[in-house]
Structure formats: structure tokens, C-alpha cells
Task: inverse folding
């Protein structure tokens, strides 16, 4: 599975951004898809996951601000990010999992700054 993340950029605090992750395969051929991020000098952090049944779960740090969704017709995963804060600045990665195998996209950079 090849994943291509896009949609990052510079946004002001309090603003919104939508990230996309296009999959080379039918997204229902994987068990789950997720978003992670990695800020400079920090470990990669889990943000949100949607499984093949459509069940979602979120990290506490983003719950209520970020929304994960998917479009099966486009084989694309999304992350709607609202109420962005400077501490949300990071490189955002999409992930797909099939059984014990994980696939990663190349990352898209998000900078939250005034």
C-alpha cells in the first residue's frame, strides 16, 4: 500500500486545516488507517484511527478538535483539524495497517503560527 499525504501548510492559531491521505489500494483492504504526527525533537505521536468498521478513536490531546474520516470512493483518508494551536506544529503522517504490517506515507508539514 502506498500512501500520499497532503494538505499541510501554515495556519494561524485557532485556524483549521484538512489533511488528506490518498491510498494506492482500496482502503477497505486494510484493517485500519491512522494519523500520527512528529514534532521537532519529539517522538511520533498517535492522533486518530478509523478501523474497517468505521469506528474511530482519538488521542486525548486532539479529541474534540480533530476529526478523522474516509472516502471509500476516493480511497482517501482525511483529518479535519480545528482550533489549531502552536503546539500542533509537526509533520503529520498517515498510516495503514493490514494484519501485522504497517504502511506509512511521507508526511506533510503543518505549522501553526501567527
Result:
Amino acid at each position: 500500500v502506498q500512501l500520499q499525504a497532503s494538505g499541510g501548510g501554515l495556519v494561524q492559531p485557532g485556524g483549521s486545516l484538512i489533511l488528506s491521505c490518498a491510498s494506492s489500494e482500496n482502503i477497505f483492504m486494510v484493517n485500519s488507517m491512522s494519523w500520527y504526527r512528529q514534532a521537532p525533537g519529539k517522538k511520533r505521536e498517535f492522533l486518530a484511527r478509523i478501523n474497517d468498521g468505521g469506528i474511530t478513536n482519538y488521542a486525548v490531546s486532539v479529541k474534540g478538535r480533530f476529526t478523522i474520516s474516509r472516502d471509500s470512493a476516493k480511497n482517501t483518508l482525511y483529518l479535519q483539524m480545528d482550533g489549531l494551536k502552536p503546539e500542533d506544529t509537526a509533520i503529520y503522517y498517515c498510516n495503514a495497517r493490514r494484519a501485522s504490517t504497517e504502511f506509512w506515507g511521507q508526511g506533510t508539514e503543518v505549522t501553526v503560527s501567527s
In short: The chain has a mean pLDDT of 95. Residues 97 and 106 are 15 Å apart (CA to CA). The longest strand covers residues 90-98.
